[in-house]
Design goal:
The complex is a heterotrimer of chains A (497), B (113) and C (504). With 497 residues, chain A is an alpha/beta fold. Chain A is built from 16 helices and eleven strands. The chains are: A alpha/beta (497), B mainly alpha (113), C alpha+beta (504).
Chain lengths: 497, 113, 504
């Protein structure tokens, strides 16, 4: 259970396939080889060990160790009684703190929601707990999931386990770091413009944004409703597939939920990539890449493409020109939806309240004191994009460009099964380095297209830079194409250095 | 809709003025200081300026995408599910101020639009 | 809320479904008297009706008036973070039925968010329909003959309610408000008419007819006083005969039909006074003060209203299939307008038809006429003798039998009324009741014998009657009624009298 640093001074955890993967733990607990309590305690001790050694990565907003221990014991009792404990029996998990948990504070790392205790569980939380998973705690994020570094948290930044002076990425930085640090083998995040994949890449773990609608959003505190999707962080592609099989599929509480079960990714995981046609997105790779991509990131992506070709995939470079404008469309659509989604934080029913002489003054004062800088900036941007004079020029136009992008990707997928790109233009950057909002926004250029098109994408670790910082490679698939996506990711995982 | 954001005089980028930002803050119920207004005018202007690249797309006959997947007619049965008494207490316990089962707020001014 | 519309009426009666010359017509003399003859009133109404569903529009909480505060709620209609709306299929069905009953096109539609901050609204936006509503381009034919075009009828959710709690001894604004979300999310349909109404009476007629339709199809209980039916009136005036649309004011807080009429009349006169003083009304929302009998300005419009409507990304479009629409159309009950037409065709005059509809006795009356009963007697009974509980469950065959007994002279009008009352309370057949009450049908020959005796007793009067003094007929009928203690059928007596006169 000791830390095995993978880079100088790091606190990342090198997983043991049997002890540290969700699949391994669930198998052992189901077989009675390990108790859920023993597993939970072991993981909780890693959290405590870091804290005691003065390594505070600031991963958790709330630790639910007591509740978790009680749940683990209850699960052990059920196993003893001969009940089926579920497919994730005894697996400690962490939840991004924008997923509602009944009886456990849910804050979105915002002062405005501090102290809010939901009276209900998110659908994904119900499904995970129903499958025997045990919640370790709620993880830190950029306030309301708005950010790419987890620095925009009312509770301070989360630090990258590979180098605590660097960011873990964001906005699901806490959940990515929780897995990378070995606190849990599985965590959930949400991905609106890359908020799962980018921190996965920066923390050296697997992160998936599934097809829009394939995982219920009920109980995920909304940032941008037409872009938000929940997905997992894991050490292995197989664990990601297992967790999505548990949380995915139709939910009547979400009108945008798919009408079917989650695609059968587990069944086809080991099918290999022989014959799959993989396009490397030209605008995001090699010599044709946009400005701002780190050479080592581009090099690792090329290496991944070569490795896939070597394993039997047909690999070619392909241009997807609208990818570039995705960023602009995203920064109209996401803030617009957010400006409306975040209107309800007004101090009336829950959350932070400031005094005011009348209701409106109270609401304005509460919102002004409760929201942080980045959230205000995006609410302002979104309000402007929706306001009367500019509706069509900004929001309306962005929605049409979104259609253009979907059509363009559909055309590309007529000739390719999958696409490949870096996940992030850069490796984990030092805390405080990207203070200009526009510079930070540019960080999402590789991940945003999948949110706009609703298509699935996965980030798989594929080596490190010279300094030992992880680099992730992104595989993209057409809508509902998770089976091929996971086949390729599983193959790439084995090809990784 | 009729105004072309690119043709206005600049404060921030894309013709965004400090007055625009102040108006937006009013709509969004946020109180901004003078410094906030200056900063946001610049920062939002930069984003809007970049967004002008969207004008390069030929979108004359392109519909808007509301959803990435074409679902329609998603209905719920007309069957009652309400909060349990426990849940109701949890809801009210979250209220910043509560009185006899209702949410307490300072006096309202103005009418519902 | 209403999007701008064109008021040009084109096309012919066959393609429109109505006669264009009946649009914007004034049918009520009183409406013409509100303003001097050279001005006319222009009114468009926005009617909000709560739909009669079990649950709310997007939340599974109970749709129920009243109750302990914040008990008919669910995380969704409380707008709790993370919750998502799901459309109540029943609400869509009822809304589409309303659209069909109002001759609307039922079309593909989407939901939009209307953004504004308000403590009664848990999400600080209201889910409504804006660009693409469910129902568009319908019309409603009023009983008095004119047609009101319906611009749209769209679905939306209601707000909660806040109650102001005063604090004595403090300044005007002191105190606080308490918010209850039981009503938040209740499904509403908003029915927006074109400005085709020409005065208070016509506006009231429109709302009454609309309410009758909503109730007939079971879509709403239509109770204006309880707030399940709410009416906002857009009022303007213009020189008579012109087709311009001048600045309108939206009058809210109208809680009864009577208030609606008063509010429109007052607002029209207020506009007139402004024009006569060389001023102009300002486009604004005004509130009706029932006690003061006038409107006063609501929230100032200085702060620009910008609701930032955009399609709700949490909801997907509704695409009604032609099959579904036809299924709904077939399930519509016979609507008030058609029922009224059927009554008139069966022989009722307008007033009798309205009474029959109001009392829900149109089915009974039509069935009795169908069964061969005399229409005039049928509608007379409906108007005069059946304003009682239980009348609607009267057996139509029995009712027809009664009218036949009356027609053939077996029962007098007075007797028939008594028998009818007994039929309502006991449900027995009229012949049995008549027998029980001793209303033996008086034999015509018996009556003839009695009449001959009376003629013999009054030879002078008989002579004068036969010579043409018609008013003496009453004397003979009166004598007969006296002799039979009112049991004789007046019609038969008159018939006998004329027979005797003709053969004299």
């Amino acid at each position: 259970m000791s830390d095995t640093p993978t880079s100088g001074g790091g606190h990342a955890h090198t997983p043991d396939p049997a002890l540290d993967t969700a699949s391994g733990i669930a198998a052992a607990v189901r077989a009675g080889d390990r108790s859920a309590e023993e597993v939970f305690r072991a993981h909780h001790e890693r959290v405590l060990a870091h804290t005691e050694a003065d390594v505070d990565l600031n991963v958790f907003n709330t630790l639910t160790a007591d509740e978790g221990l009680a749940a683990a014991r209850a699960l052990d009792a059920r196993i003893a009684a001969g009940d089926d404990p579920g497919r994730l029996a005894g697996v400690p998990i962490a939840l991004k703190d924008n997923l509602c948990t009944r009886g456990v504070e849910t804050t979105c790392s915002s002062k405005i929601l501090q102290g809010w205790v939901p009276p209900y569980d998110a659908t994904v939380v119900e499904r995970l707990e129903g499958a025997g998973a045990i919640v370790m705690g709620k993880t830190n994020l950029d306030e309301f999931a708005m950010g790419s570094s987890t620095e925009n948290s009312a509770f301070g930044p989360t630090r990258n386990p590979h180098d605590p002076e660097r960011v873990p990425g964001g906005s699901s930085g806490g959940s990515a770091a929780a897995v990378a640090a070995g606190y849990v083998p599985l965590s959930l995040g949400s991905d609106t413009g890359g908020s799962i994949r980018q921190p996965a890449a920066l923390c050296g773990v697997v992160g998936v944004k599934p097809s829009y609608g394939s995982v219920s959003r009920y109980g995920l505190i909304a940032f941008a409703s037409s872009l938000d999707q929940i997905g997992p962080f894991t050490h292995t592609v197989a664990d990601a597939a297992l967790s999505l099989s548990v949380i995915g599929g139709h939910d009547p509480a979400d009108s945008t939920s798919i009408r079917s079960a989650f695609p059968p990714v587990l069944q086809h995981l080991e099918d290999g990539i022989e014959g799959l046609r993989v396009g490397v997105i030209g605008e995001l790779s090699g010599d044709s890449a946009l400005e701002g991509f780190e050479p080592e990131v581009l090099a690792r992506t090329t290496a991944a493409a070569d490795a896939l070709a070597g394993a039997g995939a047909k690999v070619e470079t392909v241009s997807v020109p609208s990818t570039v404008a995705g960023l602009s469309a995203y920064y109209m659509i996401a803030p617009a939806e957010a400006s409306s989604n975040l209107a309800r934080y007004d101090g009336v029913r829950y959350g932070h309240r400031e005094d005011g002489v009348n209701t409106r003054a109270m609401m304005a004062a509460s919102r002004t004191a409760g929201f942080g800088e980045e959230v205000k900036r995006r609410i302002m941007l979104g309000t402007y994009a929706l306001s009367a004079g500019y509706w069509d020029a900004f929001y309306g136009r962005a929605q049409r460009v979104r259609t253009v992008m979907i059509r363009e990707f559909d055309e590309v997928y007529a000739n390719f099964d999958l696409l490949l790109s870096p996940t992030s233009p850069c490796v984990a950057f030092p805390l405080g380095e990207k203070s200009d909002p526009m510079t930070m926004y540019l960080n999402d250029v590789c991940t945003i297209p999948s949110n706009l098109t609703g298509q699935p994408a996965i980030s798989v670790p594929f080596g490190t830079d010279d300094g030992g910082l992880p680099i992730g490679v992104q595989i993209l698939a057409p809508y509902g194409g998770e089976v091929d996506l996971f086949r390729a990711a599983r193959a790439l995982e084995d090809l990784a250095p | 809709m009729e105004s072309d954001p690119a043709s206005q005089t600049d404060d921030g980028g894309a013709g965004l003025t400090r007055d625009d930002v102040a108006k937006v803050a009013e709509l969004a119920l946020l109180e901004l200081t003078d410094a906030d207004l200056d900063r946001f005018t610049d920062q939002l202007g930069a984003v809007l300026q970049r967004a002008e690249e969207l004008a390069a797309f030929d979108i004359a006959d392109v519909p808007r995408t509301l959803h990435p997947q074409p679902l329609h007619n998603v209905y719920r049965p007309d069957v009652v599910i309400e909060l349990t008494e426990d849940q109701r207490e949890e809801v009210l316990a979250n209220a910043p101020a509560e009185e006899s089962g209702r949410f307490k707020v300072p006096p309202a001014l103005g009418e519902e639009p | 809320m209403s999007a701008p519309v064109s008021t040009v009426v084109t096309g012919d009666a066959t393609s429109l479904g109505y006669d264009p010359s009946t649009v914007g017509r004034s049918d009520h003399a009183e409406d013409g008297q509100v303003l001097p003859g050279d001005w006319e009133i222009v009114v468009g109404l926005e009617v909000h009706a709560e739909l009669a569903t079990e649950t709310k529009m997007f939340s599974p909480a109970r749709n129920h008036f009243g109750g302990e505060p914040n008990t008919h709620v669910h995380p969704v209609c409380l707008g709790l973070p993370g919750t998502l709306p799901v459309v109540n299929g029943k609400a869509v069905e009822l809304s589409a039925k309303i659209g069909l009953a109002l001759n609307c096109t039922v079309q593909r539609c989407i939901f939009a968010r209307k953004n504004y901050f308000y403590p009664d609204m848990p999400k600080d936006y209201q889910i409504s329909q804006y660009e693409e509503p469910l129902n568009v381009d319908g019309f409603l034919s009023l009983p008095s003959g004119s047609t009101v075009r319906i611009e749209r009828a769209h679905m939306e959710e209601d707000t909660g309610k806040s109650t102001h709690m005063g604090e004595s001894g403090r300044i005007h604004d002191a105190g606080y408000s308490l918010v209850d979300y039981n009503r938040a999310g209740v499904p509403l349909i908003e029915i927006v008419s074109h400005p085709d109404l020409r005065g208070p009476e016509q506006a009231k007629e429109y709302v009454e007819e609309l309410r009758a339709i909503l109730v007939a199809i079971g879509a709403s209980d239509g109770k204006m006083e309880e707030g399940s039916l709410r009416v906002d009136a857009n009022v303007s005036i213009r020189p008579a005969g012109s087709d311009e649309l001048r600045t309108r004011c939206e009058v809210k807080n109208v809680n009864s039909l009577r208030s609606l009429g008063r509010a429109i009349a007052h607002e029209a006169k207020r506009h007139l006074a402004l024009y006569e003083a060389g001023e102009r009304p300002m486009q604004e929302t005004r509130h009706w003060d029932e006690e003061g009998g006038k409107t006063h300005p609501g929230r100032s419009k200085e702060e620009a209203e910008d609701y930032r409507y955009f399609p709700d990304p949490d909801l997907v479009p509704i695409e009604p299939s032609p099959e579904w629409i036809e299924e709904l159309r077939a399930s519509l009950p016979v609507l008030p307008q058609q029922r009224r037409a059927a009554l008139v065709a069966a022989g009722a005059d307008a007033k009798a038809a309205d009474l029959a509809l109001d009392r829900g006795l149109d089915g009974l009356a039509l069935a009795a006429v169908d069964a061969g009963a005399d229409a005039e007697r049928v509608f007379t009974h409906v108007a005069n003798n059946l304003a009682v509980d239980g009348a609607e469950s009267l057996d139509a065959g029995h009712f027809a039998d009664l009218v036949k007994l009356e027609s053939d002279g077996s029962l007098s009008a007075t007797q028939a009324k008594q028998v009818l009352a007994e039929m309502v309370s006991s449900g027995k057949a009229p012949a049995d009741i008549a027998a029980d009450l001793g209303f033996e049908a008086m034999d015509t020959s018996e009556l003839a014998t009695m009449l001959d005796a009376i003629i013999a007793d009054h030879p002078d009067e008989w002579q004068r009657f036969c010579e043409g003094e018609g008013k003496l007929q009453g004397v003979f009928v009166g004598q007969m009624m006296k002799a039979t203690k009112g049991q004789a059928d007046g019609k038969v007596v008159n018939q006998l009298l004329m027979e005797r006169k003709n053969s004299a």
